[in-house]
């Protein structure tokens, strides 16, 4: 690990070249492989990826609940861990709060005492504790519950209490480990909105773990997509969705049509690819040569039904099925014997079995090696 340079004032968390192996009887598991990232002041950085890709491990390393094998972690300008020097700041002194999927409230303590816990621990004067706990409970809409026990609350309410406990100490950095996974869909959506507005109001920085793409997009300023212990791509939700730089990221965030093809060449600034559904033109600047096998990805919402029968990126097809899904309608079309999925906010006036033209703009045709 290189010598650390001074941390810019607006960076709250920095991990550098973090590697973590778990030792098991059946050999080592490489949970983190040379991971680097920063979380800026007031930023919500979401770690997104499938089960087992190392999200929780990274969060636990930052919290100090797990010790990395290699690398360095800085929080609020202080190196809290480096592989040369070991643990320099223990978990309770790192100035971070954590919110878990399982709420992790003390069942034998009242709501008030649960929320007060970080303050009691830090020996904050009793009168301050009362005011701060009540303010935190009001913030999450649970002022009425201070004398109840966690067992007397719903899952959503318990998670609000856990949120109150995380914000009460004003730590400035909050780590979230799948905080909304245990509550039902309606409550999840509501809590997500409240969490976003609460973060705006309080301005804390967040490192937020989820495997849910919609949640990531809704919550994040930036998303770090992870793949088996490594960072596949970091960017704004828009960049991750519209400009995925690998098939892995494209597949993980949103639906895609995938067509294998062969590069024909370039013409008029467009890359031409012969695919199983015909010749497609792309605006991608990907570095490929004629004859090279590639995979073409097109998102269903970027395909449209057209009255034309031929032209650039227009293909004749047969409508196989139509499914009304509320927000959009999903159409399955057949180009030859290949299925193509389209999503449209409009009701297309085509009956199943009828002929349609489908088209896509070159900027929506993504080509991957
Ligand atoms: P999930 O969404 O399922 O929680 P995750 O992305 O958070 O997944 P981690 O929990 O960080 O992934 O796990 C990363 C890898 O390390 C996985 O292969 C996991 O099986 C392994 N692992 C995690 N904890 C341990 C442990 N205590 N001992 C051995 N292997 C572990």
UniProtKB/TrEMBL annotation:
- Keyword Transport appears in the UniProt entry: yes
Q: What is the lineage of its organism?
A: Bacteria, Pseudomonadati, Pseudomonadota, Alphaproteobacteria, Rhodospirillales
Q: Which residue numbers delimit the ABC transporter domain? A: 13-253
Q: Report the PANTHER family cross-referenced here.
A: SPERMIDINE/PUTRESCINE IMPORT ATP-BINDING PROTEIN POTA (PTHR42781), SPERMIDINE_PUTRESCINE IMPORT ATP-BINDING PROTEIN POTA (PTHR42781:SF4)
Task: Tell me the protein's name.
Answer: ABC transporter ATP-binding protein
Where does this protein come from, organism-wise?
A: Azospirillum himalayense
Indicate whether Translocase appears among the record's keywords.
no
Gene Ontology molecular function terms on file: ATP binding
Q: Which UniProt keywords apply?
A: ATP-binding, Nucleotide-binding, Transport
One Pfam family recorded for the sequence: TOBE_2
Q: Which domain of life is it from?
A: Bacteria
